[in-house]
């Protein structure tokens, strides 16, 4: 049965490469029926379902894959993306950090570290934004009321779209595109609304955020003593040196790297110090 499952998987891969994600899902499902103990089949199907934005099904596949193979980096990577998409940033951050840890300790996943690192930062930022949103809503009952109205409108649109999809009026790919457009429009309206309130009362309503370039790609915290490598990546000195004790390679590129290759990033250090000093009232909550 395993060889039949492998044949079905390869056919699914061919459909996936052509962007035929629904067909790929069907073939991966058939392969799983033939060999339900293969964790990589669930990971393949999860990836195809990601393309279709079938978030709950992605999560189910990833959890099953992880149950069968705990150290499945791709499963945690896909799981984090789906959890973030359904607005569960805490769970998404945990999954993304696990994927990152598995990646940097792997000898075979050399090309994934930068992608996963970017996802970790995205999850952490989304978690922070959720806290910021609640803080701003507490500052203004009018903002909270208007945000609620915008969100209810978006939810109603998504529910109507799901009803059309279930009735066969739109296909999976078209539905995914429309869901994405509704979500983008809602986010834009919310951002515009918060910007207006920030302009009206900047002392209380201005959004607080940390620029990506100040964040260390190992600890995902704000850097204090950044160093730069020969290929231009910057890291917090202490955490990078600790990493190099275990593995003399760049955490993101896996190029050979030694302590003697590091140079102080003076400009970035100054930027970090200025940002922390200007935002000391809240920065340690980030």
TrEMBL record:
GO MF assignments: peptidyl-prolyl cis-trans isomerase activity; protein-folding chaperone binding; ubiquitin protein ligase activity
Top-level taxon of origin: Eukaryota
InterPro entries, per database record: CHIP_TPR_N (IPR041312), TPR-like_helical_dom_sf (IPR011990), TPR_rpt (IPR019734), Ubox_domain (IPR003613), Znf_RING/FYVE/PHD (IPR013083)
Pfam families found in the cross-reference section: CHIP_TPR_N, TPR_11, U-box
Catalytic activity: S-ubiquitinyl-[E2 ubiquitin-conjugating enzyme]-L-cysteine + [acceptor protein]-L-lysine = [E2 ubiquitin-conjugating enzyme]-L-cysteine + N(6)-ubiquitinyl-[acceptor protein]-L-lysine
TPR repeats: 5-38
Alphabetical list of PROSITE patterns matching this protein: TPR, U_BOX
Keyword Isomerase carried by entry: yes
Protein name: U-box domain-containing protein
Originating organism: Lineolata rhizophorae
């Amino acid at each position: 049965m395993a060889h039949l499952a492998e044949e079905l998987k390869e056919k699914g891969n061919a459909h996936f490469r052509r962007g035929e994600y629904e067909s790929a899902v069907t073939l991966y499902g058939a392969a799983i029926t033939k060999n339900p103990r293969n964790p990589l089949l669930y990971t393949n199907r999860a990836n195809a379902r990601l393309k279709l934005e079938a978030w709950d099904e992605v999560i189910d596949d990833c959890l099953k894959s992880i149950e069968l193979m705990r150290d499945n980096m791709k499963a945690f990577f896909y799981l984090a993306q789906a959890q973030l998409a359904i607005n569960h940033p805490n769970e998404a951050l945990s999954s993304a950090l696990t994927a990152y840890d598995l990646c940097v300790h792997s000898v075979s996943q050399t090309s994934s570290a930068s992608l996963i690192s970017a996802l970790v930062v995205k999850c952490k930022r989304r978690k922070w934004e959720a806290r910021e949103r609640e803080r701003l809503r507490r500052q203004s009952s009018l903002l909270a009321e208007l945000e609620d109205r915008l969100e209810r409108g978006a939810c109603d649109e998504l529910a109507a779209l799901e009803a059309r999809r279930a009735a066969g009026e739109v296909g999976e790919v078209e539905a995914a595109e429309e869901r994405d457009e509704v979500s983008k429009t809602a986010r834009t309206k919310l951002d515009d609304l918060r910007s207006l309130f920030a302009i009206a009362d900047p002392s209380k309503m201005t959004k607080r955020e940390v620029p990506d370039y100040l964040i260390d790609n190992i600890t995902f915290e704000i850097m204090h003593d950044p160093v730069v490598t020969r290929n231009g990546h910057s890291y917090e000195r202490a955490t990078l040196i600790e990493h190099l004790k275990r593995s003399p390679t760049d955490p993101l590129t896996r190029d050979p790297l030694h302590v003697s290759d590091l140079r102080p990033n003076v400009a970035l250090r100054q930027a970090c110090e200025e940002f922390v000093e200007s935002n000391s009232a809240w920065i340690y909550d980030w």
